[in-house]
Design a protein that fits this description.
By secondary structure, the chain is an all-alpha fold. It has helices at residues 20-33, 42-69, 71-76, 78-83, 94-100, 106-111, 117-127, 132-162, 167-173, 179-192, 197-238, 247-253, 266-291, 295-318, 325-337, 344-351, 356-371, 375-381, 383-410, and strands spanning 6-9, 15-18.
Length: 414
């Protein structure tokens, strides 16, 4: 946060931003990889990975509260928020490229979605864990976990300076179904348009929730069938050469996430509370360093966000029907911030002091430490897989932004 934002100009009209969240991610990764550093290793990476599950709730709570503050605007832009989900099909532009690079049936898993957790589950369930399609989706999953967040942050900063779309369209496009990538894509936009910060956070948050809820059906019923047909059509024409994904290493080393939803206990609540308290202090100090906001007001804002996160995590574990904590967190955060609610003014006053940039910067330090353990898998996948993964991210981001902008224009919103 002390280094701040660095604006690197490519031309007079094109530039991109280097943000504190990128520095923290890189520093966390370097601390893990440097052999002379003994106090960060596999054990700490595992702890960081567990902490990330909780801290994603903090990101979602902040965006949900912004959504509550801008609920009227969200209803007005409803069609654009829904239709931009079709932009997720933009990942399929990577399929012919993947075929040209020598991949075979792996391309169906690699290019039918953004390859986050729900998509991974769809592909493995449909084709089997040892299938080429599963190797493909797992390879992009690993690449996205390691370089997806910094890449989409740079992509967002470049697009906002080059493409004449409305900021609302880019905010909606950032909701691709990954909380960390959602926030990383949003931060450059908020930095470029600070007066619209609350609205941009609201649209990005709602878009991401829609991607969480509906993206899996888009993958199952639309994008995977289209990917299969494209593969059948293009493979005889473009399918030359042979790229290799090390199936044994990828399949064995990418572990299933630990299911921590098995009930609620006082011990869990104490651990979550302690972690959120520490994280709130880190964010408060970082916010003061980066934005000179009042320490007490920022800390109170973080406490509100933490309480929303705790409530959502707890409700997931006590609700008789399995509903993900992200849904509870989003609903609670939205309701307490809706204008007219007794809590709205209090929540808006204090949470507005907490900058999304600071939360992301602190969160991505944990991400950097955590992904260090996946570095060897990343190297084994090779440069061909990296190219495909980056095109997948570009395709879904620009596809969603394009549809959102066209819909906003067609409905007279811009």
């Amino acid at each position: 946060m002390a280094i701040g934002v660095i604006n690197i100009k490519i031309t007079d009209n094109i530039s991109f931003l280097l943000l504190p969240l990128i520095y923290s991610l890189v520093m966390g990764l370097v601390l893990y990889l440097v052999k002379s550093v003994k106090f960060i290793g596999p054990e700490q990476a595992k702890v960081a990975e567990g902490v990330m599950v909780l801290l994603i709730g903090v990101l979602l709570a902040k965006l949900a509260i912004s959504s509550g503050q801008s609920i009227a605007s969200i209803f007005k832009l409803g069609p654009a928020l829904v239709l931009q989900l079709l932009g997720d099909l933009g990942t399929l532009i990577a399929l012919p490229v993947a075929l040209l690079l020598g991949f075979r049936r792996e391309v169906i898993g690699m290019t039918s979605s953004i390859c986050r957790e729900p998509n991974l589950g769809v592909i493995i369930d449909k084709y089997g864990f040892k299938s080429p399609e599963a190797r493909g989706v797992l390879s992009v999953f690993v690449i996205g976990s390691i370089i997806g967040t910094p890449f989409i942050s740079l992509l967002s900063s470049i697009c906002t300076s080059v493409i004449p779309f409305h900021p609302y369209a880019f905010a909606m496009a950032s909701g691709i179904g990954s909380a960390s990538m959602n926030a990383a894509a949003l931060v450059p936009l908020v930095h470029s348009h600070p007066a619209m910060a609350t609205q941009l956070e609201a649209f990005a948050g709602c878009s991401n929730i829609l991607s969480f809820c509906l993206g899996i059906y888009m993958c199952m019923f639309i994008s995977v069938p289209i990917a299969e047909k494209l593969y059948a059509w293009l493979s005889p024409i473009l399918g030359k050469g042979e790229a290799h994904i090390d199936d044994e290493n990828i399949l064995n080393d990418v572990k299933e996430e630990e299911d921590d939803s098995g009930g609620l206990s006082l011990g869990k609540l104490k651990r979550w509370s302690a972690l959120l308290l520490v994280f709130s202090v880190i964010v408060t100090v970082g916010n003061y360093v980066g934005f000179h906001t009042p320490l007490i007001d920022t800390f109170i804002g973080m406490m509100i966000i933490s309480i929303v996160t705790l409530a959502g995590m707890a409700l997931e574990r006590i609700c008789p029907i399995h509903i993900q904590s992200i849904i509870f967190i989003s609903i609670i955060g939205l309701i307490i911030a809706i204008p007219g609610m007794p809590t709205a003014d209090f929540v808006a006053h204090y949470v507005s002091n907490v900058e999304l940039t600071t939360i992301c910067t602190a969160f991505l330090a944990y991400v950097g430490v955590s992904i260090g353990k996946d570095w060897e898998e990343f190297k084994r996948i090779g440069w061909r897989g990296v190219i495909v993964a980056l095109i997948v991210i570009v395709g879904t981001y620009l596809g969603s932004a394009t549809i959102a902008n066209l819909t906003l224009f067609a409905t007279g919103m811009i």
